[in-house]
Amino acid sequence: MSVTISSCCGVLEEVCQLLEKSFGPNALQVMICTQTGQLLVTSDGMTILRSIHPSHPILRFILASVTSHHGFTGEGSKTFILTLRDMLQRIEKSELTVDTSDIHCNETRIKLAVALHHIQYDIIPNRIIPKILFHATKLEIETNKKDVIIAEAKCLVHTGISSKESRVKASELTDLTADWIFNSSPSVENLKETLEKLSDHFSYFCIDEPGGHVLDSIIIPGILIDRNFVTTLPMKIKNISYVILDCDFNIGNSTDTTSAIFQINSELNLTMAYSWKKRLMEKVLFKLQQKNIDVLLYTGKVCDTMKQLCNDRGIAVVQYLQKEDLDFITTATGISAINDFRDILDETIDKTNESHQAKENSLNEHTAREHIKFIGIAQTIKMLTIGGKQYVNLVPFFQHSSRFQPHTLVLYGPTKGLSKQYSTIAAGGVKTIQMWLQNIDHSETDLGNNQKNFSQYSRNPGECQDLFDKHLPTPECQTTINNPNPKHDLKNTVSRETVFSSANTDCSSTQNEAVYFSENSQPQFEELLKVYSLPGGGAFEFLVHYHLMDYIAHISSNDGDCYLKTACQIIAEGLLCTPRLLHRNSYSVKDTRNNFIKLQHLVMGSMRSNDLIYLDGKTGEIKQVSENNTQVKESLYSKIHLLNNILTSVQQLLKIDRVVSVKSIGSKSGFINQQSDSESDASST
Amino acid sequence: MSSRVKKDKKQTSSIDFLPLHNKGTLEAVRILRDIARESYGPFGKLNMVQNTIGGHVTVTSSSNRLFQAISVSDVIVKLITTSLQGHVATHGDAGLWGTIMAINLIEKSPIENTHPHLLVDIYEMLLQYSMDFLKSPECPAVLDIDISDMNTMRDVIRCVVNSKPACGLLEYEQDNICSIILEAFLKSIPSSCDNSLKFFSVNFVSMEGLGANNMKLYDGVLLEAPSIPTYLKNPLSYLNLPVSEIPVAIVTTSMGGDSEDFLDIKYESGEQTDGHALVLDTILKGLANMVQSSVRVLICQKVAHPRVKAYCTEQGVMLLDRLGISHMESLCQLTGARKISSFSSYIDEGLYGSIDSANHLVMAGKSYVHLTRTQSGVTTVLLAGRREEALNELKVVCDTALRSLRQLLWQPKMLYGGGCWETILSAHINYLISSKMSELTEQLGCSRHQLRQAAEAFTHSLHDIAMATSDTKLNHKLDMKYGHHWIAENGNDDYASCMCGAITRDNALVFKMLGNLGIMDINSDTAPEKAIDIEDGRRMLLDNLPAHLGALLMAVNTASAILKIHCIVKDRN
Question: Where do the TM regions start and end (chain B) (predicted)?
Fold first, then answer.
């Protein structure tokens, strides 16, 4: 099956029809009826795309790219598909890519792909991004300005959520998500680590429950274990000692297995075999009682005898913990599971163990002598009933030096599907803030002539910093950030520094003086961490469009440049799909919306005088970026990442000539009949 | 060897756009609304539900049982029923109310000329206002309940019982069950408590075939005992010795001869050794210790071996086995015993409880053991009815009534029933809209016309529910002073009192017809007043406040979610 650009556009058409109305702050919802009969109501792009189950290989290929992008950023899946479709349509209409009857890949498509590659890895990072940084907001994260960071993070999260829910719910979910993240992170320095932990064990740290309203959602200190006490509840209310037991009393150690058959000859032996388990349990529980253990978290099944023994000794037991639960509990509490009951009997759990692995890995000297703890002390361990289900709530001690203070977010919704939607939104919020904390990473780009400069700066972060500082203007303005949620009346003053990369001068000088950051040159947290954001509402897209069109005007019109020029136009026009859709989906009582082309001219006019304006997705009005109204914000890093991924996908599609499918042997109707063993039947396949 | 391997190909999901424009969906939604509307209130009709291929027939007007019985194929209807089922599972009441409200909002919403997002914003604003209004201390739609007044408490129960005609109770039978439930509730309140209030359990035993006048409240627990022949007289007399307490042990492990204490290995034993016998011997030794400690009643959650039963009979111990987990909690509360989980370890005497008496009762040809203990508040309500469906409905009603009474302890407030609180709320919403029109349009970013239309859809939905509380289709009126709901009996203008019974007719009252009352039709100068002079002892219709608040929340959220749906994706795999 040959692959043409028009066929690619065709397969995307129905998907885009589905996604267009679900785009922007006025997004409508899609109801998904899953295989199991569950109903989801959502406008989350990734959820919608996953429900489609496309059969066309090109569409599946595109969805795989979107999935991988979404897995990294947590957002942007709708923008990805819609922008990709728009760019492909423009390529289809372009004079350079008239499809001939020749089924082989068009040479022009290859050349266009090369031009796109050059734009992606040279022009955009070296010429466009430095100019965009002029308009970007860089927030200096200092440890004593946590409330400022919270306000900024809420802005970003609110931007993503406002397209998925109504005003009241979006505001509530924004507050909940941000409060949950920042409650779990005692200081700003640990924010990244906290986000990683929350993201890795999201389904444990965020629980969705049907049968309630989102306004009833709560943040609970500590962790929730989806189990019940099988014995009496802990007698103590606070300062409760606990251990995690991951071994089976049945056969001793999980590694001890035997297929031997034991012979029991006498009544005495039978009695001893019968009482062996009970005696072992008594010994272990006696040792635990000596250590004042109040709660036992157990992975196995608690038999009746163990229940009785624990009740007698006042030890509360939670049973049936899964292996995955252990990993989560260890992450949250720092307490490791005891894998062999002999460690309890030998009192090995009292000794400090050196981490042998950390000794081998000498990169990080801080963890060379790591204490592995087996006995934990919790502020409290109690039963909680949430939405009709019972949970064990374990609240570890939050010390000042704790890097992570686990909190659990409980989200209520009317039905399972809707509550699941809210937790998906919260997951997106976590990823949004993670993306926002990334520095602009140029390590993945092919810088060509600037490779030397880049490697020089990456080895010498100090020089990088000097170069960076050279271009910093003195802070000119003190501005105020208003929290988008009127409930929390935070007004903070932050100094904003805008970065000049000599963007106002000609493009050639930008190459040598542009500022590069990479992961290796990332400042330690003793220095200031710089994060960039831009207003939403198509501001990024307008900026890239404007600067690309500006660049096109500078390109000389010789043959070698015609593909480059076309590629630039395709990208520039294709990116306007986002503000165009925002405009289309908006509604306004005042009806002051003009034709989008008129709006576009207004925007371009403003950009010529270095003013940044954006589109209000609700009303379709053009608004000037000012300190008071920039409530919709997007992480610059994630926008650039999105653009890179879209361009990569376009290039890959341009290079695909045909799809070759493999049929299984002897499967004319897709049915393999193995009733007959005769060789003649086998040979006919 | 024969096997067929079918290569399954994943099917692309089907996509249907604009489901609310689909005739089939609209029809299904209307049918659900009609079912809920017809079943609502004391004049509600019964629904008979049966699968098309046959099977059990459910007769009910209760949303709890109705939603469980009907099977739904349309996804929009399924979303509504799932959402309201969740509400009923939490609150136990107001499921039909929520269903009617949600569907009315969907049908009456002006989606042709207002963007769904804007509609949802307006509804959420109205919802927030309604919640704040109903929760405010001086809310005119809320009546403060004196929980020490037993007549009022009985009225609360009567409102619940009255609203379910499927129970098939006559008036004096309703009075009887109201008294029984009230007494059970009062006995279930502990005399002292620490931080958390834990009620004593109230058990229900159903007796099919007896008339409803046989309903009765028993102190203690009634357990079915098929092992005791019905013809015996005083078979438990040996237990009721002249002692103050009869020691009781509660065992939750199996006494059938199997044990989890053996290691999970394979073993061979000779003829003289038998694991089964060893376990039984251990159990019998444990029983012997119990007998030595004077235990006379042994309650076992699981099965007991015949040798164990024989031993108990020999020793004069009454054994009740195979009771299941459902009775364990109430038996522990009654006897004060702690559960014994194993015979392998030493059984402390502190685990035993006690009862005051154990009697044999025969009812409807079945043997029961009646265990009592004076200090305990555990009670058993004997529900009697001629039909199984009536009994099932009655059980749900009793459960709902108990829940309402318990909620009154936390929040002694009820809503004026009979449609009155709905009309009061709608009057206040009308007042809000007409007095703050400019401010609200600015805040919401909508036009006056859009706000008015959306608010009218909201208030008309409330009016529709108010009108569903009676079987007359005419003469539903609203008084302009208090905002209560009135209907005229016999089709004339004779309004004696409002539907809830709080307000009697006053010549100064001005009425307007309900139905299509617009925002501009209401006098917007003042909001309706709170009725203060309510006669003591007046029998009133009341609605559960927390349940209806929850239903309002659920209904608006569900309707909002459905209004914003622009397409449905169905996985066909």
Answer: none
Contact A548, A571 (CB under 8 A): yes
CATH (domain of A291): 3.50.7.10
- What is the domain range of residue B205? 146-219+383-411
CB contacts, 8 Å: B566 with chain A: 21-22, 28-30
Same domain, B152 and B88: no
CB–CB of B317/B297 below 8 Å?
Answer: yes
Of the candidates A434, A481, A487, A626, the residue with the CA atom closest to the CA atom of residue A152:
A481
For tokens 């909940």, the residue is A176
Residues of A in contact with B79 (CB under 8 A): 31, 39, 41, 415, 417
Query: How much is the pLDDT for A478?
Result: 28
> Is there a single domain that holds both residue B37 and residue B158?
no
At residue A617, the pLDDT reads: 82
Pairing, β B413-416 against β B542-544:
antiparallel
Three-point CA angle B392, B393, B395, nearest 5°: 65
Test A30 with B566 for CB contact under 8 angstroms: yes
Q: For an interface test with B, give the residue of A305, A310, A421, A677 to mutate (most B CBs within 10 A).
A: A305
- In degrees and rounded to multiples of 5, residue A186 shows phi and psi of -65, -30
Q: What residue in B sits closest to A60 (Cα-Cα)?
A: B12
Q: How many CA atoms does the CB half-sphere of A72 hold within 13 Å?
A: 14
A269 touches chain B (CB under 8 A): yes
- CATH number, residue B321: 3.50.7.10
Q: What is the pLDDT of residues A577-609, one digit of tens each?
A: 999 998 888 876 555 556 777 777 878 888 787
H or E stretch covering B566: strand B565-570
Residue A223 forms beta bridges with which residues?
A394
pLDDT digits (tens, 9 = 90+) for B199-252: 899 999 998 888 888 899 999 999 998 888 888 877 787 766 666 788 999 999
For strands B476-479 and B413-416, give the pairing.
unpaired
- Structurally, chain A folds into a number of domains equal to 2
Whether B6 is covered by a domain: the verdict is no
C-alpha distances in Å from residue B133, one per residue of B127, B142, B521, B549, B559: 10, 10, 22, 11, 21
Whether B163 and B246 map to the same domain: the answer is no
Segment 134-163 of chain A within 8 Å of chain B by CB:
none
Kindly state whether residues B214 and B229 are assigned to the same domain. Answer: no
Q: B298, B312 in Cβ contact below 8 A?
A: yes
Task: Determine the straight-line distance between the first and last CA of chain B, rounded to whole angstroms.
Answer: 29
Supply the range of the domain harboring residue A41. 5-112
In the prediction, which pLDDT does A524 show?
A: 41
Q: Which of A92, A112, A132 is the last residue of a domain?
A: A112
Label residues A381-390 b or e (16+ Cβ within 10 Å = b).
Answer: bbeeebbeee
Helix axes A416-436, A146-162, angle to 10 degrees: 130
Residues B93 and B30 in one domain: yes
pLDDT tens per residue across span A643-669 = 999 999 999 999 888 888 776 665 444
Counting every residue written for chain B, the total comes to: 573
Q: What is the pLDDT of residue A457?
A: 31
- Does the pLDDT value for residue A93 go beyond 70? yes
**CA A478 to CA A483: how far, in whole Å?**
16
Nearest CA in chain A to B568: A31
DSSP of B338-356, one letter per residue? --B--SSS---GGG-EEES
Do residues B196 and B301 both lie within one domain? no
Phi, psi values for residue A527, rounded to 5°: -90, 175
DSSP A239-290: SEEEEEE---TTTSSTT-----EEEE-SHHHHHHHHHHHHHHHHHHHHHHHH
Residue at A57 is within a domain: yes
Q: Looking at the 3D structure of chain B, how many domains does it have?
A: 3
